[in-house]
Amino acid sequence: MNYQNLNIHTNGEFRFSLIEKPFKYSLFNGKDKSFYSIAYNKGQATTVLIDEVPYSFEEQMVLPLMANQTFSFQNPQDVLIWQFNREFYCISNHDAEVGCVGFLFHGSSGTPFVQLNEEERLKLARMIEVFKDEFETRDNIQTEMLLSLLKRLIIFVTRIAKIQFIDSSKIDDVRLYTIRHYNLLVEIHFRTHHDVGFYANELNKSPKTLSNLFSLYNHKSPQQVIHERLIVEARRLLYYTDKSVKEIAYELGFEDAAYFSNFFKKNMRVSPSDFKRNAMMAV
């Protein structure tokens, strides 16, 4: 099962597929386009590699993935995946909460695995049938209908994710917006700004206020969010490109390659040179 909708006026593209064999998405292979993805495992538990880190993808789980994440399913039994580019969905006038900068993709510095209960499974099953029907209906308003259905899907998963990952007694919508905005700013500026002070200034908050806010949300500090984003990108560049450690250090905003190497080793317990060597041997 493979469906596709193309908008020749905006270059928007929306795909809906059933994955039954090994599948990999990567912007580093020069073939895949930039897509946001939402995967749903309605079959047996399997393993998903996200930036070459293995995670258990359990039955009845939904997994939102950002466009810059490399991921693969090794032995999928019954995984459905929705994929869309910015031109299809993100340029629409959606509320930020359910847009491409919304909670699913920027609400957490980690990747949320959203578990469905039986009632939610049935709701999603009905939604999937509507998606199939609409992809098979070819007319001049199909794109608008698919946009509405995609927004409905994102709202559906967002509501469940917020219940599972947010303590509403501690984090209200205003605080959650600040956290989400912080994560988005880090995604935009992590290569050039490694200090919390920059982001605090952008948000008109003090660094201490941000630290207190993040302590309510999870165990990561604002500085940890920056460091983890740098490490993720360093791992990607070391694993998927031929760039030298020195080139990667400069690309990530480190003026001193030695300082970058120490930073990487402190977080990964292996030097970037050894990491790259091991990655090359694993390919």
Write the layout of secondary structure elements.
Blueprint: E1 2-7, E2 12-19, E3 23-25, E4 36-41, E5 46-50, E6 53-57, E7 61-65, E8 71-73, E9 79-84, H1 86-90, H2 103-106, E10 114-115, H3 118-135, H4 142-165, H5 173-189, H6 196-202, H7 207-217, H8 222-240, H9 245-251, H10 257-268, H11 272-282
Antiparallel strand pairs: 1-2, 2-9, 3-8, 4-7, 4-9, 5-6, 5-8, 7-10
Helix pairs in contact: 3-4, 5-8, 8-11, 9-10
Notes on the protein architecture:
The chain has helices spanning 86-90, 103-106, 118-135, 142-165, 173-189, 196-202, 207-217, 222-240, 245-251, 257-268, 272-282; strands at 2-7, 12-19, 23-25, 36-41, 46-50, 53-57, 61-65, 71-73, 79-84, 114-115. By secondary structure, the protein is α+β, with helices and mostly antiparallel strands. It has two domains: 2-165, Jelly Rolls (Sandwich), CATH 2.60.120.280; 173-282, Homeodomain-like (Arc Repressor Mutant, subunit A, Orthogonal Bundle). A hairpin with a 2-residue loop joins strand 5 and strand 6 (53-57). The model has no long low-confidence stretch (mean pLDDT 88). The longest helix is centred in the middle third of the chain and has 24 residues, at 142-165. Helix 3 (118-135) runs antiparallel to helix 4, helix 8 crosses helix 11 (272-282) and helix 9 crosses helix 10 (257-268). The chain contains eleven helices and ten strands. It is globular. Strands 1-2-9-4-7-10 form a six-stranded antiparallel β-sheet. Strands 3-8-5-6 form a four-stranded antiparallel β-sheet, with no helix packed on it.
